[in-house]
Protein 1
Amino acid sequence: MIYSRIEGTGRYLPSKMMTNFDLEKLVDTNDEWIKTRTGVERRHLAGADQATSDLGYEAAKKAIENAGIDKEDIDLIIIGTTTPDYVFPNTGTLIQDRLGIHGCPAFSVEAACSGFIYALSVADKFIQTGGTKCALVIGAEVMTSLIDWSDRNTCVLFGDGAGAMILKPSSETGILDCKLGADGKYKDLLLYPAGPSKDFKKIGTGEAKLIMSGSDVFKVAVRTLGDAAEEALKANNVNKEELDWLVPHQANLRIIQATAKRLELPLEKVILTVQDHGNTSAASIPMALDVGIRDGRIQRGQLVLMEAFGGGFTWGTVLMRY
Ligand code: ACO
């Protein structure tokens, strides 16, 4: 059996930080409301000269260093992002160029907040089928580029960041199962309705804005994530109490608490970072994983469940023995 095993992880948050108190000066909101409803205390914003590839590059460098590999060994780059630098070239190739490596396939996967879990699942398949020996998988976003800073319903939720990992084949431990799902019937509940082939000119003019039906998203997210997590365990004959760590998409503390409750998992077994950076979409899971691994909580051999949910809707789980 070949597993995809994590050899190293890295994360990057831009230096510019905005607290809930800073937001009080922009819109009619307050720290207490934001913390109680979402768990978010602060978020980081990409600098004017920073695009998604810049954030992804910084996280990738740290993952490469942490894995102790030669960057020339990388033979696959996949990035989950919904905020690419350009229409093309894809952000994976931009990071490949920044790293100074050449020739390996590099591409982006677009699945909103589930983008990293989708990208990781694809990389896992590349490794399992024998071709790939060293994959760089990234989740990176500049979500604040989509934000209308006068809309209190959405501007308090999001932030920018990037996380990355190096994956290699192993006969010992690694990814046990990936499950992905989507249901386009929910497309109108969470969307940014402009892109290259539709209403492109509205982007950047304030005419296009992120639309979210918050309480509807909340309800479907809680139900779907709970179902997906239980399905992942059941399909792999894992009992709830065997799980060592939950590494969830960091969108909202209350959604995370609901999933933990469904798994009968105390919050001490959940990696929580939403307070430090808000919803960074595809970047949130690899960043949280990096936090848990680097601070020593997630140990080799432990059972970890990652789970994501995002616009589309899309969702996914990855069960692994780290
Ligand atoms: N500050 C103060 N008041 C606010 C703010 C704000 N920033 N935003 C909304 N309100 C007000 C509303 O106007 C409303 O006022 P009203 O009762 O006078 O009309 C009141 O607060 C309650 O609004 P609700 O939308 O019902 O508040 P809710 O408890 O549902 O919380 C939230 C809103 C946090 C968006 C919640 O619905 C949520 O987390 N939804 C999930 C959406 C999510 O996480 N999206 C991220 C992307 S999807 C994903 O990654 C899973």
Protein 2
Amino acid sequence: MTFATLGLIEPLLRALETLGYQTPTPVQAQAIPAVLAGRDLMAAAQTGTGKTAGFALPLLQLLTMEGPKVAANSARALILCPTRELAEQVHASVAEYAQHLPLTTYAVYGGVSINPQMMKLRKGVDILVATPGRLIDLFRQNALKLNQLQTLVLDEADRMLDLGFSEELANIYRMLPKKRQTLLFSATFSDDIRLLAGQMLNDPLSIEVSPRNVAANTVKQWVVPVDKKRKPELFVHLMRKGRWKQVLVFAKTRNGVDALVDKLQGLGINADGIHGDKPQATRQRALDRFKASEVQILVATDVAARGLDIEDLPLVVNFDLPIVAEDYIHRIGRTGRAGNTGEAISLVCADEVNMLSAIEMLTRQTLTRKMEPDFEPEHRVPDTDASGQVVKKPKKPKKPKASGGGGKRNLGKWVDSGEVAPAEPSIKPVRKVLVFNTGPRKKK
Ligand code: AMP
């Protein structure tokens, strides 16, 4: 199969040739004809599967072939993304695909001045890439009208809900024309996403290019058990031992990012960090420098790193495990992209056992553990497996008991705080309840 046989027009084929895309990826092979035929789409596709081109190419073609010229302060297609970085990245891809087409594209997001964005929108743009909050601001300030909108794309819809954008999405829904094409992309499909899809989509075609909630199989994954306080030391040790050249590291909190960057920089290691507290320009600069291999180690929170496309990234390190298990799939999706192989290493302490268990259950695999000599944890990380059970194993063979009831003592050595009962369910990803009705906002 080629892009030509999917029915794409010559200016798009020429752009793809320049980019070196030879064969459509599975998501592209399914999405392109469906979108060209005007269908709504509900697509489960991981990052790195080529989903951006899957929706952008047919969208560009439809906008070129059909519909009136864009009016002032209007957009003909809207691509909603959860983060500024992703909006920039998607916009860059769209602009590349559109290089031989007479279409205008633009990206708007918060954290930067709104005035230049308002100016730019005056003439209207064919494709607008936006984060939800800024889109609403622009709409409320009359800088943007949506009555000419033909197509809405929700990219990384699951992440938008995770980031608490359900109310924004409900507001945007009210601003849209009823007649439109809607394409929803999500790496993972929770009940909330299905609810959203039920509201927004009209007889959608479902596309699932990879098994649900399964991590990319091009990524070699393993876990190194370690005590929490020794994680920075272990990270530096592994980095030196493995001669890591370019690593994206995930930490749980903004403070965690800053602390690790400080520690690495203090050791003369070329590291930088990105998180939501940093100004957009600083985040973008750190990312650009990382992409250009001017920064060796980029430490990020999930919010800042979502959807980043970094070519040939060989290694992702989870300095902390994510609280929401689905984020693990997104994180490791930064490597092993577009057919390359990659590695994902997680430094796991006893406190994180339930998160590990939730990840293994979600990805339906038991992650290999590799003990690092001299870093064996004092607080043992209890055994886990893909069934979601935290396996409680006594350290020593049980002695016969004189009286009943005392045999389950002294197992708490594995975790800092108390025991983990074998039947205890693993942490369930905390999900926001989706409020998605057209009535007035309820006070929480
Ligand atoms: P995405 O999943 O959209 O973030 O795309 C992941 C990466 O794959 C990006 O770097 C794209 O440029 C690249 N890519 C997408 N489609 C193709 C294709 N058909 N052939 C080669 N590379 C592709």
